[in-house]
């Protein structure tokens, strides 16, 4: 089955699609968004099986139930007692959720955070990973719940108390950082085997570098492994090769640019580090069965 192209899912896109950005379930501005119940989002905003590229970072606080979510090509399970931090420009796809699933979510543009010492505090907190899933203790869960409740209550005031929300958000992020550093804290990555950890780190690298780096050796060097061993690990964990994953990432980037930007074909070829537009067009057709021009018009 042909994969769908990721659609942009930024705060500005959401503002343009909904009539009332402020309701009993959401508060949306151009650089900050708060959804008090993800199950009450309009159906046209989040469709199952459709990949979306999120422009801003996300913090999802899982209230109940479970959901299967793909983030940058890897599937994870969200469940009650977790909080998820997702890096800006990630590609997400909702695959399935239980009937009782619900979560609160914040979308945060770096400009909204009143921190000048770090270019992007969320990226800092993620330690340059694309995703962080944290299992919360009962006490930590209650603390996060109180942060969300207070922020939501303040957002119901007639005048948006921007500075109050900004500093509460920073306090929340620093509190999460303390959770991560605490010795008793269990982070999702800690449950991975060594091979699974290599696979996760490899995918993170592919999402960062695939625009310019497309050799097995590059990623093997980054991971301090031999190319042969890296290929073996990736194949055992995903039934695909290193080059399969690189190609998927490149095609995904190309599809986003073709559908969601004003760039011309030769500019996209240059952006993706192809030697010339002709080479890019042949590569794209070989991988998708259609030319970039035909895909753009479809």
Concise structural overview:
This is YesN/AraC family two-component response regulator. The protein is an alpha+beta fold.
Q: Could you characterize the architecture of this molecule?
A:
Keywords: DNA-binding, Transcription, Transcription regulation. InterPro entries: Homeodomain-like_sf (IPR009057), HTH_AraC (IPR018060). Residues 200-298 form the HTH araC/xylS-type domain. The chain is of the alpha+beta class and 298 residues long. It has two domains: 7-190, Regulatory protein AraC (Jelly Rolls); 192-297, Orthogonal Bundle (Arc Repressor Mutant, subunit A). Helices cover 43% and strands 19% of the residues. The strands form two sheets. The protein has a seven-stranded antiparallel sheet with strand order 2-3-10-5-8-11-12, with helices on both faces. A five-stranded mixed sheet has the order 1-4-9-6-7, with helices on one face. Strand 2 and strand 3 form a beta hairpin. The longest helix has 20 residues, at 162-181. It starts with 6 loop residues before the first strand and ends with a helix. The mean pLDDT is 82.
